[in-house]
Amino acid sequence: MSNNKNCQNCKKNFAIETEDSNFYEKLKVPIPTFCPDCRHQRRLAIRNERVFYYRNCDSCKKKIISYYHPDKKQVVWCPECWWSDKLDSFVFGKDFDFNRPFFDQFKELRDKVPTLSLDIVNCKNSDYVSYCGDDNYCYFDIAGEKNEYCYFCKFVKYSKDCIDCSFVYNSELNYECVNCHKIYGSSFLNKCTDCSSCNFMYDCRGCTDCFGCWNLRNKSYYIFNKPYSREEYKKIVSGFNKKSFSAFENMKKEFKEQSKKAITKFANLINSPNSTGDDLFNCKNVKESFDASEAENSKYLCDVLDAKECYDLDFSLYKPSFNIELISTLNLANSGFCNASHFSNDIWYCDKCNSSSDLFGCVGVSKKKYCILNKEYSKEEYLLLKNKIIEYMKSTGEWGEFFPIGTSNFGYNETVAQEYFPLTKEECEKQNLPWWDKLTSTYGKETIKNSEIPDNINDVKDEIVNEVLVCACGKNYKIVPYELSLYKKLGLPLPRECPNCRHDKRNVIAGVRKLWHRKCMKDECQNEFETSYSPDRTETIYCEKCYQQEVY
């Protein structure tokens, strides 16, 4: 049974199921007034993960890389200073004012407390990494975990020697792969598991030495889904000049045309019973979620690992449990409406708070208990004041709402929200959303045109790492040394697009995070399902039963 609500933001109706009402009641929060999409947009608008600037640390004054442009008023410290004993966030503590909105008071506090230049934990020898933990020798790795030598990746975990990969896990030596698990020495794979030495593959499992294939299971020496002997396969593949950029582009076109024959399962749900969404791995009773693994009894998850009893989480890892509306967090429990806070319990409306419990409206607090707006109280005082503030926030309509867009000091166009809910500057101005005009500067004037880059990787000189290239989008970019060595190791040509354009194309491959109600496209089948493939897509979409019959 469900009740319909009207979103106070976009004015569209959305459903509140009985299971939703029960969850909100257990967590003692009101039913949301924003629809799932608008809640998601609001959370993503607090996270900048790809726009970097050079500036000086406001503590030690050394030159650093930061999410925050030097012209912004935000006080920014480098990780060394921020995590040291130099930061005393209680200096900025304040009493709660029951005559003013909570969010106004919180933003004033957030603007004063020094913020972390980059949210990274235990990363070594890694530049331009963002929201990463335990990375080593990585470059422009976003939301990575225990990676080594991974370049220009997004949400790649426990992997090594990967370039331009998104949502790839436990893998090594790969290029341009999306939504894959346990792959090795491969390029241009999508939705593949346990594959090695493969190229241009879609929805394959347990395959080795295959090229341009789809829907295969436990096969070797296949080309465009046709079997060959080992000797025939090696001979034919050796004739494919992967090292040539022009030849490689032709191969992409050929695979795109050939793969139209593929059968597409309505959703990539691997060992995930009673679940809806896409790219779910080992999940149980997880609804309307995307790119989640090992989760249970949760809803509205995106890029989440090991969640239990959680709603509305983004980029939250390390066993989050019984939470609501979190983004960029690690190991939180019994918490809600927090950003970039880690290893804590029972914290609410907090930003960059760590190893703490019983916090409300705090910023940059670590290893503390019973604090409100960065002021410490006794347990009894804390509980009394917290409950009083919640009652006050109910009267102002703030309790149960995530931070409004603009409270993070990021322009909307700097945040992840722009990737999934793109807006123009004019649209942001109309909606009174912040916009930042001073995005990352380029490397300077180009020194080599794309047309001047050698077609074959074998002809590319090492000196190209000193050159400035220009993308069709107008942005300049560089090839960094280890990146070049991986292209040569994999025998692949240099890219002719900047990392951001390559990232945008992978986002398209990864798919949208929205569900449509559709029917199986196999003749005479009447099964219906929820799928992220919109009705205007050209793929042949099958239900689970028909897909299994066709593929296995």
Report on the architecture of this protein:
This protein is an alpha/beta fold. Among the domains are: about 1-35, no CATH class; about 170-265, no CATH class; about 270-395. Helix content is about 20%, strand content about 30%. It contains twelve helices and 35 strands. Strands 19, 20, 21, 22, 23, 24, 25, 26, 27, 28, 29 and 30 form a twelve-stranded mixed β-sheet that branches. Strands 7, 8, 9, 10, 11, 12, 13, 14, 15, 16 and 17 form an eleven-stranded mixed β-sheet that branches. A hairpin with a 6-residue loop joins strand 1 (about 1-5) and strand 2. The model has no long low-confidence stretch (mean pLDDT about 95).
Helices and strands in order, then pairings?
Elements: E1 2-6, E2 13-17, H1 18-27, H2 36-44, E3 53-56, E4 63-66, E5 76-77, H3 79-82, H4 102-112, E6 115-116, E7 139-142, E8 148-154, E9 160-163, E10 166-169, E11 172-175, E12 178-190, E13 193-196, E14 199-202, E15 208-214, E16 220-223, E17 226-227, H5 230-238, H6 245-258, E18 263-265, E19 269-270, E20 277-281, E21 284-287, E22 289-293, E23 296-305, E24 308-317, E25 321-333, E26 336-339, E27 342-348, E28 357-360, E29 369-372, E30 375-376, H7 379-396, H8 417-420, H9 425-430, E31 469-470, E32 476-477, H10 481-490, H11 499-510, E33 516-519, E34 528-531, E35 540-542, H12 544-551
